């Protein structure tokens, strides 16, 4: 197997790319640029807005509505056809806008490219446009530079690079020239630099080994391009239901048309065959209009929009409306560690002094000389600072020492003003030390901090209770044991030492014969509220998985502390995950709670593995490396402080970067889905009632009880407000105690279908009775009474539609005030249809009076009361059954 770039020597790299330490010639660079193209990301062409618009008409229910609208237009029913066309166009425009808003991940990736680069060409230093870089170019780096391409380092001087956007790590990476023989993830390729990352400290020189889409960030772009966004469970459910309903409506309309034609041919009609056939055709069309909930898409969109406002209160900003509902079905949350589960703030958690005494550190006046010396070194051998405005500048580890001092009521500035820095030996990744020179207590002292092993190796004395003693082997072993104990707790440890100096001119050799003072251990601690949120997620049947770029030991320690990792759980690194076959991953998937040092490809594989097991997965992230997995997940959740690339690839953004906010948003998502089901059930119960009345009229040889315009008025105008009001119902108390719903279950799963059927039968029965009572006076009056009863029945049905298990009184009649407002508004809308001049449009004759209105309202109230009483009966039967079962068990 050929060596990876980071495994090769610099000589091998030079030979491979055909370059040298002083760079390429201008001629060779121009030739390569022409052959390989510009150093920028390329993307596939996107669908135009027109193509997206056309695709919205592929839905089965939309096709049926289009056919109905065209037929009505040809038959002269212009108003009805115009209304249907308007609704379809509105839904299409909304869909296109949502799709276009979701695009932009690659545009954000492109914005990360450096504008120019400082290179060597023909042995001379020059600045060129970064997009003109080619493989083999030698690039110079300084603090603050964006790295313009991937490359192997040729020279480093205390070089640190922030690679968080690729690895997820919050601490800058110390770079070196050391060769690497084994396979390691990006975060451990310390002899490489990567396009889009930023130099935070030091300087360096590297040779370009990859440009454009061949870079690591380019591979992320390719993953983004090749990742197909998942349809939400609601979208899949509605698509499936739409196809089935469309076929059922088409079959029903054709059967009705066939029956009508058969009657005309066998029994004869009015004598005018053309008129009879036209009426039969319009009867069949009326069935289609009655069955299709024309306002369904708009109502679902509005209910989802209500959910977005509620989620915004929970610090969750929704970018794609369907994501609101998807959260409710989430059964796995794959979450980043840094900043989401933790505070993204390195914090001193413990310290160690060789005297083994626990210090009372809260009062600086009571500090022992040993602890005071430890704190002084940590503040002086330190380049970090906190501005007057509270802005923290510098390495997170060094900032942790300043924060610790401020927490202990010792302002760090007082120490620095008392002992100003005279000279320094900057941190170097090779020696892993930093030293500064200060005049303290009438002598010059060298203050050193660094890795415990290095500091201990260079120390020959030790400070104990204010006295300097020889450092014995027993003491060394004790310090090493304490260091290991801290490391086993996933704490990052630094050691501190000092020595008096005669000379005032520092050299590296001065960092010898040190006096060891102590250790300080720190970690990025978990957020306080996260442990409870993980527990709440488990109660709700949601598995939490940590996916981080951090080291495995640290990740597992945090995961155990907050309850993500429990007894028997597994943890894998990205390299270990790559070694697993698909079958092995599938077999172990539900036991793996932690993934560390992972790549973008690893993250996508993990998300897909859960999806293939039928789970709805949520994925959090903030870096460029997270973007492909965010797009692949059923719901991608970006952090508010994250990159634009991550945000553009996500469906939701957390403004507070807090895992607990995800669980709060899940509760809202579950409630939104419940409310959407209530709204859909409300619509279809009303439509079923209308179809039952139409079919009964057909069987009895009565006139069609409704005109197409009456049905459109009810479906689009009257029913919309109650359905939207149902979208504002509060969550059931047990909503977070039930397991996530099966994503493959239908819209009418559970007892929803039974409820819809029962309510539809009662509405249909009320309408049939109304038409029957009006027909003796005239067929027109029967139709008017049928329409009036249908509109009242569907309006009052809003009350029982609020819950399948409890009555409106039990739920609180005014706990959702929008329901009462919707009923009042619908009553007013009904009154508009009775206004002279308008009533003719709705086929309401002049002899339709107050008496007929009272009868219609009475029939509607009777149907509504029956719906509510039935709930009480079912509840009583359940209680009796439960009591019987308990008695049997006790016996």
Characterise the protein shown here.
An 8-stranded mixed β-sheet has the order 8-25-24-23-9-20-22-21, with helices on both faces. Strands 10, 13, 14, 15, 16, 17, 18 and 19 form an 8-stranded mixed β-sheet that branches. Strand 11 (385-386) and strand 12 form a beta hairpin. The mean pLDDT is 85. Helix content is 49%, strand content 16%. 47% of the residues are buried. The two termini are 72 Å apart. With 891 residues, the chain is an alpha/beta fold. The chain is elongated and about 120 Å long. It has 32 helices and 25 strands. Helix 4 runs antiparallel to helix 5.
Number of helices: 32
| Estimated structural class | alpha/beta
Proportion in helices: 40-55%
Taking all Cα atoms into account, the compactness measure Rg is 36 Å
Would you report the number of β strands?
25
Largest sheet: 8 strands, mixed
Output the keywords.
891 residues, alpha/beta, elongated, single chain, eight-stranded mixed β-sheet, 16% strand
Overview in brief:
This protein is an alpha/beta fold. The chain has 32 helices and 25 strands.
Topology:
Elements: H1 10-17, H2 26-36, H3 49-55, H4 60-74, H5 78-102, H6 105-110, E1 116-121, E2 124-129, E3 138-142, E4 150-162, H7 164-167, E5 173-174, E6 192-193, E7 198-210, H8 216-226, H9 233-267, H10 273-291, H11 296-312, E8 316-318, H12 323-329, E9 332-335, E10 347-352, H13 369-380, E11 385-386, E12 392-393, H14 396-407, H15 412-418, E13 421-428, E14 433-440, E15 443-450, H16 452-457, E16 459-464, E17 467-470, H17 473-488, E18 492-501, E19 514-523, H18 530-539, E20 543-548, H19 552-562, E21 570-573, H20 574-578, H21 582-588, E22 592-596, H22 600-612, E23 617-621, H23 627-632, E24 635-639, H24 644-649, E25 652-654, H25 659-700, H26 708-718, H27 720-726, H28 752-774, H29 779-796, H30 808-811, H31 817-832, H32 850-890
Parallel strand pairs: 9-20, 9-23, 16-19, 20-22, 21-22, 23-24, 24-25
Antiparallel strand pairs: 1-2, 1-3, 3-7, 4-5, 4-6, 4-7, 8-25, 10-19, 11-12, 13-14, 14-15, 15-18, 16-17, 18-19
């Amino acid at each position: 197997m050929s060596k990876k770039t980071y495994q090769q020597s610099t000589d091998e790299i030079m030979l491979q790319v055909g370059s040298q330490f002083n760079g390429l010639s201008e001629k060779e660079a121009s030739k390569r640029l022409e052959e390989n193209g510009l150093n920028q990301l390329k993307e596939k062409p996107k669908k135009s807005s027109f193509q997206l618009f056309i695709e919205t008409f592929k839905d089965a229910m939309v096709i049926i509505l289009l056919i109905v609208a065209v037929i009505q237009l040809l038959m002269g029913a212009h108003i009805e056809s115009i209304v249907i066309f308007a609704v379809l166009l509105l839904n299409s425009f909304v869909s296109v806008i949502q799709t276009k808003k979701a695009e932009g991940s690659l545009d954000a990736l492109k914005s990360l490219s450096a504008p120019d680069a400082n290179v060597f060409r023909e042995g001379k230093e020059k600045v060129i446009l970064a997009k003109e870089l080619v493989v083999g170019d030698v690039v110079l780096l300084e603090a603050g530079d964006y790295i313009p391409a991937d490359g192997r380092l040729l020279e480093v001087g205390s070089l640190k690079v922030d690679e968080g956007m690729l690895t997820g790590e919050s601490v800058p990476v110390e770079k070196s020239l050391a060769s690497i023989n084994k396979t390691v993830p990006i975060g451990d390729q310390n002899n490489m630099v990567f396009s889009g990352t930023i130099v935070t400290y030091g300087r360096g020189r590297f040779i370009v080994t990859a440009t454009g889409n061949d870079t690591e960030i380019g591979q992320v772009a390719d993953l983004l391009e090749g990742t197909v966004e998942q349809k939400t469970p609601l979208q899949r459910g509605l698509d499936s239901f739409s196809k089935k309903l469309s076929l059922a409506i088409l079959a029903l309309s054709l059967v009705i048309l066939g029956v009508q034609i058969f009657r005309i041919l066998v029994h004869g009609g009015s004598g005018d065959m053309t008129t009879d056939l036209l009426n039969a055709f319009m009867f069949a069309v009326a069935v289609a209009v009655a069955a299709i909930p024309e306002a369904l898409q708009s109502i679902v969109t509005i209910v989802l929009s209500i959910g977005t406002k509620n989620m915004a209160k929970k610090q969750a900003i929704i970018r794609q409306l369907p994501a609101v509902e998807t959260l409710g079905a989430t059964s796995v949350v794959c979450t980043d560690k840094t900043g989401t589960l933790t505070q993204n703030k390195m914090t001193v958690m413990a310290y160690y002094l060789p005297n083994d005494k626990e210090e009372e550190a809260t009062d600086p006046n009571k500090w022992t000389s040993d602890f005071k010396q430890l704190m002084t070194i940590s503040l002086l051998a330190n380049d970090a600072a906190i501005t007057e405005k509270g802005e923290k500048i510098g390495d997170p580890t060094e900032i942790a020492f300043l924060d610790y001092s401020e927490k202990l009521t010792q302002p760090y500035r007082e120490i620095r003003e008392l002992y100003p820095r005279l000279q320094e030996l900057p941190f170097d990744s090779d020696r892993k030390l930093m030293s500064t020179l200060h005049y303290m207590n009438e002598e010059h002292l060298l203050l050193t901090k660094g890795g415990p092993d290095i500091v201990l190796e260079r120390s020959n004395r030790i400070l104990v209770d204010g006295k300097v003693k020889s450092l014995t082997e027993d003491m060394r072993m004790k310090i090493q044991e304490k260091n290991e104990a801290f490391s086993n707790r996933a704490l990052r440890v630094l050691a501190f030492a000092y020595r008096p100096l005669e000379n005032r001119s520092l050299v590296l050799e001065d960092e010898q014969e040190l006096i060891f003072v102590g250790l300080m251990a720190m970690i990025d601690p978990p957020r306080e509220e996260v442990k409870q949120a993980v527990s709440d997620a488990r109660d709700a049947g949601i598995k939490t998985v940590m996916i981080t770029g951090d080291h495995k030991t640290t990740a597992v320690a945090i995961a155990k502390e907050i309850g993500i990792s429990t007894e028997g759980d597994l943890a894998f690194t990205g390299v270990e995950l790559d070694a697993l076959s698909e079958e092995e991953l599938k077999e172990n998937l539900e036991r793996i709670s932690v993934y560390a040092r992972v790549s973008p490809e690893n993250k996508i594989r993990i998300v897909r593995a859960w999806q293939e097991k039928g789970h709805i997965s949520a994925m959090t992230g903030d870096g460029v490396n997270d973007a492909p997995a965010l797009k692949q997940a059923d719901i991608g959740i970006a952090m508010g402080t994250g990159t634009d690339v991550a945000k553009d690839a996500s469906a939701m953004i957390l403004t507070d970067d807090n895992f607990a906010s995800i669980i709060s948003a899940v509760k809202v998502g579950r409630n939104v889905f419940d409310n959407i089901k209530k709204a859909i059930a409300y619509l279809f119960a009303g439509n079923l009632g209308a179809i039952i009345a139409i079919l009964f009229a057909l069987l009895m040889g009565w006139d069609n009880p409704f005109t197409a315009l009456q049905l459109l008025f009810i479906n689009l105008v009257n029913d919309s407000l109650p359905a939207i009001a149902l979208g504002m119902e509060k969550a059931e108390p047990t909503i977070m105690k039930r397991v996530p719903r099966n994503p493959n279950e239908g819209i009418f799963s559970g007892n929803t279908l039974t409820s819809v059927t029962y309510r539809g039968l009662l509405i249909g029965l009320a309408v049939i009775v109304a038409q029957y009572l009006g027909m003796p006076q005239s067929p027109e009056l029967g139709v008017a009474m049928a329409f009036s009863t249908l509109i009242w029945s569907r309006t009052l049905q809003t009350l029982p539609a609020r819950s399948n298990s409890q009555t409106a009184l039990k739920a609180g009649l005014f706990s959702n005030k929008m329901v009462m407002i919707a009923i009042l508004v619908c009553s007013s809308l009904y009154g508009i249809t009775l206004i002279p001049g308008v009533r003719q449009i709705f086929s309401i004759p002049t002899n339709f009076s107050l008496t007929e209105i009272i009868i219609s309202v009475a029939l509607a109230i009777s149907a509504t009361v029956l719906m509510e009483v039935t709930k009480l009966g079912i509840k009583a039967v359940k209680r009796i059954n439960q009591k019987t079962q308990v008695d049997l068990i006790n016996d």
